[in-house]
Amino acid sequence: MIAIVMIGLLFLVGLGxxxxxxxxxxxxxxxxxxxxxxxxxxxxxxxxxxCIGEKDTLTAAPTPTPPACSTYTTQDxxxxxxxxxxxxxxxxxxxxxxxxxxxxxxxxEGYPASVNGRMSDPVGGDWWLVAxxxxxxxxxxxxxxxxxxxxxxxxxxxxxxCWSYQDSTLLTYYDPATAVGKLNxxxxxxxxxxxxKDGCRPSYKDLNILKGYPVTNMPSGHQELGExxxxxxxxxxxxxxxxxxKTNWGYRTFMHATIPNTCWxxxxxxxxxxxxxxxxxxxxxxxxxxxxxxxxxxCAS
Length: 301
Known about the structure:
The protein is of the alpha+beta class. 18% of the residues lie in helices and 17% in strands.
């Protein structure tokens, strides 16, 4: 009889411990934000972009979308609902009436309001990248932005002119509910497959870009990139770092109070090994010259 009671007690204790560790592990999994640290008994939810418990339900994969019109390169293959544009020689959702550039090239109505009183400078220091009356179609703005090396364009419908932002980080603050000038302005990306809300570039996660910078002094020190007084894009900063043989870059966004749109690099990437970013930082971002590498690994892997 005593043996039976003991067996029962052991069973209950084991069950209790199992439940405790299951709940504890589940809670701990949810605290993990880095995929590399999401190990057993946790697992990474790819489509949910989060760490979950081994018995939690995975986020379902998104529904596949049909090929974009722009993937068809000849008039014979450009069939409805797509339209062949004889002027541009491209297949898109627009016949060239200036309403849509292409469904693959993201565009929105209006532009972001200033953020805490700060606004990105225009490309070239001029808010009229294309003069009034010379941009009859958004395509004209897109072409001018590409020629200027920018990843974004803006079109004013009323005076048929264009502008482009020096720092497309501003676009990540775009909110359709608070956007300015929605009836008269279009804003879009020069590259296909990226979104205005991501700054017209792949997301920070896809590029392994982190906000902030290590607050401790770097043993090897750092050096500024570019010419004093000049302003650059994030992509230009990465390119300059690569040209001098560095594997990391840092960028001061338009939100920086004193020297926005400037950049630097650390002399030894191993100095930043272990850095995981500062999510609340809005004034600096960092990345590796090779976007497949990670800062926390010193841009080595």
